[in-house]
Amino acid sequence: MSAQSDGPYGPLIPMPELTPEALRRAVAHIAPSRLPALTQHLFEATTNAQQTRSLAPLRAFVHSWAVFVAIERHPARAERLRELERIVDTGEADPSDAIVEIRAIWEAAEAEAGL
């Protein structure tokens, strides 16, 4: 995991390397309830990679879970994302601003993960 400091309110953990095992360890630490989903996704990605003889499913797995970790390691950012997703899901208000902010959170997480 690469070290990163955001001061006293920084991330829960450093951003891990972009390997299945490092991402699994990070998810186990910050969101253990998501481990079954990660394990299932990795199994499916591995199976699809073998069947298609392509690394694309494994790259998609790493991308997806790296973004998840980059978001979830910052509790305030993760909570804000959930709040924005609720706004979009409920349809009670114009979701345009929420969608723009969701996209910004995802882009920041991708950059943080080096994707």
Tell me the strand percentage band.
under 5%
The helix content, as a percent range, equals: 55-70%
User: What's the rounded overall pLDDT mean?
Assistant: 91
C-alpha end-to-end distance: 15 Å
- The arrangement of helices and strands along the chain is HHHHH
What oligomeric state is this? single chain
Question: Any low-confidence stretches, pLDDT <50, length ≥5?
Answer: 1-7
Radius of gyration, rounded?
15 Å
Q: Shape from CA axes?
A: globular
**What's the total helix number?**
5
User: Main β-sheet: number of strands, strand sense, barrel status?
Assistant: none
Secondary-structure-derived class: mainly alpha
Count the beta strands.
Answer: 0
Produce the secondary structure layout.
Blueprint: H1 20-30, H2 35-52, H3 56-72, H4 75-90, H5 96-113
Task: Write up this protein.
The structure is a single chain. By secondary structure, the chain is mainly α. Helix content is 70%, strand content 0%. It contains five helices and no strands. The chain has helices at residues 20-30, 35-52, 56-72, 75-90, 96-113. The longest helix is centred in the middle third of the chain and has 18 residues, at 35-52. The model is unreliable at 1-7 (pLDDT under 50).
